[in-house]
Design goal:
about 220 residues; alpha/beta; Rossmann fold; 6-stranded parallel beta sheet; 6 helices
Length: about 220
C-alpha cells in the first residue's frame, strides 16, 4: 500500500511540475508576442502609397508549395507585395532570402523567377541562398548585402519578429505587410508556432548570441536609377 501511495505521490508531483512548466512557457510566449507587437507599431505598413521609399526590400522566403502541390499563399502574397513596392517606386532593388540547403530545394531562385514573371527586372534582384531562418536573413541582409535602412516584406505576425531581430542588430527597418489569410487550419497553425518562435528569437538574440549558419563574401546589390 505504501508503494502505491509513494507512486501516486510521485505522479502527482510530476503532473504539477509539468503544469507549472506549461504555464510558465505560455506566459513568457504571450509576453514576448505582445512585446514584439508593441515594438513594431507605427513602422508596419499595408498601403503601398503611404510607406516611405527605401533603397531596397528584403523578402523573407518560404516554400511556394504545401503538401500535395498546393500553393502556399504566404509565399504568393509575399511575392505580390514585393512587386507592388518595386512597381510603385518604393524600392530600387529586392533581396530575396530563403533556404537552399540542398540542390532539390531552392526558395530564392523560385522567388526570383516569380518576381521576374511579374515584371521585376532580374538585374535588380539579388539572391540570398543562406536565409535558413529569419535571424539568418536579417543578419545577412546587412553583413552580406549591405542593407541597413530597408523594408522587410512578410505577413504581419512574421514582420513583428523580424523587426525585433533587426532592431536588436542595430538596423533601421520598416515592414510592408503581405496579404494574410485567417480562419484556416494552416494560418492558425502558423500563429501557434509563432508563439514559440518569438521565445527562440529572444533566446538567440539576447541571451545566446546565435550567429547565421553561413556568412561568406559580400554581394553587390544593383539599384534601379
Amino acid at each position: 500500500m505504501k508503494k502505491i501511495v509513494l507512486l501516486l505521490s510521485k505522479i502527482l508531483k510530476l503532473l504539477l511540475l509539468s503544469a507549472l512548466i506549461v504555464a510558465v512557457v505560455y506566459t513568457v510566449s504571450v509576453y514576448n508576442y505582445q512585446r514584439m507587437e508593441e515594438g513594431a507599431k507605427g513602422i508596419i505598413y499595408s498601403d503601398v502609397n503611404t510607406i516611405p521609399a527605401k533603397r531596397a526590400a528584403l523578402v523573407l522566403g518560404c516554400s511556394k508549395y504545401l503538401s500535395g502541390n498546393r500553393i502556399n499563399y504566404f509565399y504568393k502574397y509575399r511575392i505580390e507585395a514585393a512587386v507592388k513596392l518595386f512597381k510603385a517606386g518604393k524600392v530600387k532593388a529586392i533581396v530575396v532570402s530563403g533556404d537552399n540547403g540542398r540542390k532539390s530545394y531552392d526558395e530564392p531562385t523560385q522567388m526570383r523567377d516569380d518576381l521576374v514573371k511579374a515584371g521585376v527586372p532580374s538585374k535588380y534582384i539579388q539572391l540570398d541562398y543562406a536565409g535558413f531562418r529569419t535571424l539568418d536573413s536579417i543578419v545577412r541582409a546587412k553583413a552580406i548585402f549591405g542593407l541597413e535602412d530597408y523594408i522587410i516584406v512578410s505577413q504581419k505576425f512574421h514582420l513583428e519578429r523580424a523587426i525585433y531581430i533587426a532592431h536588436a542588430k542595430g538596423q533601421k527597418v520598416l515592414g510592408f505587410v503581405a496579404k494574410d489569410f485567417s480562419n484556416t487550419i494552416w494560418a492558425n497553425r502558423m500563429r501557434r508556432r509563432e508563439l514559440l518562435a518569438r521565445i527562440k528569437a529572444v533566446l538567440d538574440v539576447d541571451i545566446l548570441g546565435v550567429e547565421p549558419k553561413f556568412y561568406g563574401k559580400k554581394v553587390l546589390v544593383h539599384y534601379k536609377n
